[in-house]
Amino acid sequence: MKARLAWLLVPLALLWGCQNETAQGTATAASLAEAPAYTEQYVLSPQVSDDRRLQEPGQQVRDVKGGLELLAANMEPQTMQIGDIELTIHETKLLHYTPDYSLIDFYHSYTHDQEFELAKFFVEINNGASEKVNFAPVALIETESGEVKTWEDDVYLESLNEGLKPGEVKSGNVGFIVKGGAQEIKLTTSKLFAADGELLAPAQTITIKLN
Fold first, then answer.
1. Which segments within the chain are labelled E, that is strand?
2. CA-CA distance, 20 to 26, in Å (whole number)?
3. Most CB atoms within 10 A, among 7, 59, 76, 93?
């Protein structure tokens, strides 16, 4: 009789354990910050998990695209003026990313690692000119170890490097796979060109420290 009772209690224990794990998962999600207001119009990336609620190092999130952990960040907005372009880097993050298996083929063009670190920036570009211009918010980045990534290495592919119409505002993510971490990132914009190729303003560089 005692043996039969023991076997009956096993499924109940497993069920309680699953419920407890679910409750803990819900509590973890609830403890994350709300998505910042500047991301309200952001259309989620098809190949990178949603990190908007990760605001403090150590926080983690998982969705159908994989799992993210925030390793370091600078959540203070950085504003640069490049001619008539106002560029705001709203946040800079270093993330540990384990993409879902369904995305492995996509990432093979960038790395053969199944998990990696991702340096990403949420940017906003405001064209104050009365003409169409060509500008890229991130032409290249360099970490303190000397690793360099160019705009061609961007994994978000959100077309932020295309031309800007007069008065147009664009926002979104730019991100690069980096090795060995990064506590300091030097970001260089592109030069600013008119639609006919005339140089309007030189590139600018900013150094962003992560905490």
1. 60-63, 66-74, 78-82, 85-99, 116-127, 133-134, 140-143, 148-150, 169-178, 184-188, 192-194, 199-201, 205-209
2. 10
3. 93
The HSE-up count of residue 164 (CA atoms within 13 Å, CB side) is: 27
117 - beta bridge partners?
96, 178
**Residues ≥6 apart with Cβ < 8 Å to 197:** none
At 46-100, the pLDDT tens digits run 999 999 999 999 999 999 999 999 999 999 999 999 999 999 999 999 999 999 9
E strand segments, 20-84: 60-63, 66-74, 78-82
Q: Which residues contact 187 (CB under 8 A, 6 or more apart)?
A: 89, 121, 138, 140, 141, 205, 206, 207, 208
Tokens of 201: 């303003």
- Please write the tens of the pLDDT for every residue from 86-129: 999 999 999 999 999 999 999 999 999 999 999 999 999 999 99
State the distance between the two ends of the chain, measured CA to CA, in whole angstroms. 60
Write the burial class of residue 106 (CB in 10 Å: 0-12 exposed, 13-18 middle, 19+ buried).
Answer: middle
Chain CA centroid to CA 58, Å:
15
Q: What letter would DSSP give residue 64?
A: T
Name 147's Cβ contacts closer than 8 Å, sequence gap at least 6: 178, 179, 180, 182
Cα-to-chain-centroid distance, residue 76: 15
Structural contact between residues 93 and 72, judged by C-beta atoms closer than 8 angstroms:
yes
